[in-house]
Amino acid sequence: MQAENVDIVIQGGGPVGLACAAWCLQKFPEAKIALLDRNPISDEDLAAADSRGIALSHGSKLLLDTINAWPNECADIHRVHVSQAGRFGRALMTREELKQDALGHIIRYRDIHLTLRKALRAIQVQSPNFAWHHIDTHTEIENIQAKCIVHAEGGLFKTQDWIESGRDYEQSALVGLVEVENAAPYQAWERFTSEGPLAVLPSHYGPNILNLIWCGSPASSQARLGLSDVDFLKSLQAEFGSRIGQFLKIQDRRLYELGLNYRKEITQGNEVWIGNAAQTLHPVAGQGLNLGLRDAYLLAEKLTALFSKPEDQKTATSIETTLQDYALSRRADRTATIGLTDFMARIFTSNLLPIVIARGLALSALQWLPPVKTALARQMMFGRR
Ligand SMILES: Cc1cc2nc3c(=O)[nH]c(=O)nc-3n(C[C@H](O)[C@H](O)[C@H](O)COP(=O)(O)OP(=O)(O)OC[C@H]3O[C@@H](n4cnc5c(N)ncnc54)[C@H](O)[C@@H]3O)c2cc1C
Fold it and tell me: pTM for this one?
């Protein structure tokens, strides 16, 4: 790689890094940006990658629509049924009561990733000062002199090379695609079991093929991963019950370790951290990528406002001030989303009797107190504004 001078370097070509680059270039096509991407150049080589279903909120759809990055292969959620296995308390949220077209959308990670790559390729045609480098190692960043460094290296819990605040929930998520006998179209199920949440979510493959996310202790999740398909389906049926008929098939089982890891300070000098590089969350509330996209959007807004100014105004001080302003603007949304997700991850995995009772009461309150339900749904759909 040739040595080069840029205004902004974005390190990480996952969904958040790509979205940030695309929004920067859309707002300021002349921006001098380098994107460092460890993924292969060819989309074909990514096609077999991560197929887990991700829930994106309506707010994320509105953001991704602005750069034409909404995947075609997507399943809408019209109703969410929340319950506790073997205990009282349930809640049903519908799109009608929340006056939305959909409560959320389920899309495979790889489709989000590929669609964002396509969107960025389309936008970069108008951007003469943008360079997209596919790299192998960390060291190549030294060849680039950047006024501002955006970290979007993402990563999963326990695979990151930094640990700051947070907790290990000592849980794993087993994900896969299940075929069932009789699913209600557009319905998502979230069931809280003694070991953690078990979610069954629509997929774009058809009404009876659903995305499974089954959280449990690392030992039992590992054991479930090793079961034969028949034994796996039997144990899933026992945990979930018969609301959607028989579980008929399971495919593409994968395990992810779960925990919370977040930075208290998301800027330092001319560096800023966004997406999973800033906070890695438990998937119980389906918020990680939604929050990361909001990070990317606001950062792009702040950076382009600064870097579209005359050269003499892009001083080290003005960059640092811009990043501090960004961090301040993200504080309420980050704190609320991290706090709510951590609360849900802990409350819904405890078997202490008072907590079990409180949880049942909370679900009942959600069902019978519409303003509480609406407030929670709005936080999950749009974040804190
Ligand atoms: C089981 C599970 C279910 C989930 N479900 C949901 C959900 O329903 N809804 C939701 O919103 N979120 C969900 N999430 C969270 C979501 O996957 C993440 O928040 C999201 O992927 C973060 O995107 P990112 O771009 O920040 O990081 P990543 O997706 O990790 O991408 C980072 C990219 O940077 C690259 N990279 C790493 N290091 C470097 C480097 N040094 N230089 C260059 N490139 C580098 C990597 O190769 C990768 O491509 C879930 C997570 C898990 C584990």
Answer: 0.93
